[in-house]
Amino acid sequence: MDYKVKAVMLDAQDVQRVIVRIAHEIIEKNHGCKNLALIGMRTRGEYIARRIADKIAEIENVRVDLGILDVSFYRDDWRMRLKQPVVQTSDIPFDITEKTIVLVDDVLYTGRTVRAALSEIMDFGRPAKVELAVLVDRGHRELPIQPDYTGKQITTSIDEEIRVRLTEVDGADEVLLVQVNQ
Predict the structure, then answer these.
(1) What pLDDT sits at residue 76?
(2) What CATH number does domain 12-154 carry, 3.40.50.620, 3.30.750.24, 3.90.870.10, 3.40.50.2020?
(3) Boundaries of every domain in the chain
(4) How far is CA 18 from CA 93, 166, 177, 179, in A?
(5) DSSP class of residue 42?
(6) 47/53 Cα distance (integer angstroms)
(7) 164-171 LR contacts (CB < 8 Å, sep 24+)
């Protein structure tokens, strides 16, 4: 699939500001960090979660638990794709029971990936609460799932996509609005 960049929606400074704001909002809404854990969804959600956890540690001088989730086999559409999913391991090295879990992803679109993540999280235990933090909410929900923390809401048309680029994966921090040429 080819694409053409229509606009840079967030540059590196904007991404950093969003991370700082989301970290503050998580701390404020949860009255601190007690019993709080972050779980980032592979791939870019993992790095966003790490950055938020680092910012929380800087603000509160407390390290929150951090896990990584791969939802490849929990997705309801993996059998419909032409190729097999690339499966990586989930790594949640702490007990999630009775914790407030903040699930972190880069882009919220239909809600299906979040639904898959919720199913997988429940296989690890029963958290007290699960909240959702996303860098970008692009709309077009197919399931009744909404984020608790949103970096930026960008309404897209059906032939547009949001591409999140992060230094750890792509060599740069930016959020692009792209036109998809199918």
Answers:
(1) 54
(2) 3.40.50.2020
(3) 12-154
(4) 27, 13, 17, 24
(5) T
(6) 10
(7) 164/44, 164/106, 164/107, 164/135, 164/136, 166/15, 166/44, 166/47, 166/48, 166/106, 168/47, 169/43, 169/44, 169/47
Residues listed for the chain? 182
Peptide bond into 113 cis (omega under 30): no
What does the alpha-carbon distance between residue 10 and residue 46 come to, in Å, rounded to a whole number? 19
Give the CA distances from residue 129 to residues 25, 163, 174, in Å, rounded to whole numbers and listed in that order: 16, 29, 31
Judged by average pLDDT, the poorest of 14-23, 26-35, 73-82, 149-158 is: 73-82
Helices assigned H by DSSP within the chain: 12-29, 44-60, 112-124, 167-170
Identity at 114, one-letter amino acid code:
V
The SS3 of residue 165 is strand
Tokens representing 29 are 């809404």
**Interval 64-68 mean pLDDT:** 98
- In this prediction, residues 120-144 reach a mean pLDDT of 96
Average pLDDT over residues 87-96: 88
3-state DSSP assignment of residue 103: strand
Lookup result for tokens 């509160």: 60
